[in-house]
Amino acid sequence: MMVWLSEDDVEQLLDAAKDTERRIAFGLGARCGLRSHEILEASPDDLVDTQAGYMLIVKHGKGGKYRETPIPNQLVTQIETIDDMRDESEDQPLLSVDNTNSLRYWIKRTREQLAEETGDDRWHYVSMHDLRRTWATSLDNKSVDAMVVCDWGGWHDLDTFLDHYRGTNSPEAQRRERDKVDWL
Fold this sequence. Notes:
Distance between the termini: 26 Å
Radius of gyration: 17 Å
Largest sheet: 3 strands, antiparallel
Strand content: 5-15%
CATH topology of the domain at 7-132: hpI Integrase, Chain A
CATH architecture of the domain at 7-132: Orthogonal Bundle
Number of helices: 9
Number of strands: 3
CATH superfamily of the domain at 7-132: Intergrase catalytic core
Structural class: mainly alpha
CATH class of the domain at 7-132: Mainly Alpha
Helix content: 40-55%
């Protein structure tokens, strides 16, 4: 089941994360569009300050492809703070876990907590990939150029993005379209 989270849902998920490490992992999915394996490989050295703002380098995306994706300043600050607290100077992954099963476990625990707290059964279906889907859809909802979103997300072509990630089911898209009809 595919789930699209609203901006409020994303904030609720990030706030519900058990610790900073999980909050960063969820943020890399929901705010940067990273796939699970890309989240595991991300390191502080992958941050680069460009003329366009901070970008996160994805050295080995799907198919081994390189790309850069924007990263929010708040997430940059969290990552730099963690990096400053480390003793070692060599580049190492942000997260202490090294497999996607750990990420699935983290999202499962958090979604179960949110389903219980909110009474909203939709939370039971949220996956790590839904965070990437939500990211792409939220960019589309803000009218970010679809080709730029494809570059940031590492999609080969516009059709893949449009077929699988452009979410007409997102709460924002549904609200926008309902507002066009007076009697709804």
